[in-house]
Amino acid sequence: MKGLDWILGKFSVDMGIDLGTANTLVYVRGRGILLNEPSVVAVRKGSTEVLLNGRAVGSTAKEMLGKTPANIVAIRPMKDGVIADFEVTEQMLKYFIHKVHGRSWAVSPRVVIAVPSGITPVEKRAVINSAERAGARKVYLMEEPMAAAIGCGLPFAEPRGSMIVDIGGGTTEVAILSLGGIVQSKSIRVAGDEMDMAVVNHMRTAYDLLIGEQSAETVKMSIGSAFPLKKEQTMEVRGLDKKKGLPKKVVVTSEEIREAISEPVSDIIDSVRDTLHSCPPELAGDLIEQGITLAGGGALLRGIGAAISEAVGLPSRIADEPLTSVVRGTGVFLDNLSEVKSILEQAEEF
Fold it and tell me: In CATH, what is the architecture of 161-190+263-320?
């Protein structure tokens, strides 16, 4: 069977997928990242029928969030890094796989999917089943912190400690790696989405202003920060007056947004601190020199590295292209099977 699979592999468009709460990215072996779209699907209410002849997925569907009529629902089928709606996730994966696969006559692809390190066996099986029904020939799972570390180019296979903090939309993955394995890790379901909701709640309680998650994300990325800025900023925010039911706009400051998101930021810092507390002494010494590498969309929050460094006393750096670190890690896995399979358990079946 392995010989047959090797032959089929020569003709299949194998791909690595970062199936994220906020965005899904797809890497095709030998070709690079071919897809980066929001994990959103627009369906007819009460069904799993995807609109626009099955094309209302990704960017097209995200534009519909909060703007649909009563008979249409734009939903995000992933929550906290795991599948919340199995049927819709299957439809989304099927669309993305077909979009990058291109050739209907080609052999069905082998797929490597990055998943949070803290998900349960049941959640893992749900990911595998959804991908298989979406058209994958074989599905292999890879822990997100390992994928992120590989994608960032960390020396994870060497006998020295490396630390990765991957802040996504639904989860934050913290891991210390050495000799090709995860020595210590922690996965928490606190990340970018919780920061967005904190901004939503702040606007409602402080200004009686109702805004959507997309608007909250814009505020967070425009003037939000985890550490005091050299020059604080302001921004106009528009929404619906909760009491009057009419359009309304207010001006908010970067200081108050920083305070609004301080709780999820503190939870992320605590997860880093907890992971370090369990670190073997020899590896802890390595981290003084190596520092902490930040990946994921949350790494783009201004000052997050400085806030973590101040809290734990270690230098930090933002990975090159942090948004694509995880999917690039799955790509390295696909492009270098002979080298990587000896240190990654999931590769034994290739």
Answer: 2-Layer Sandwich (3.30)
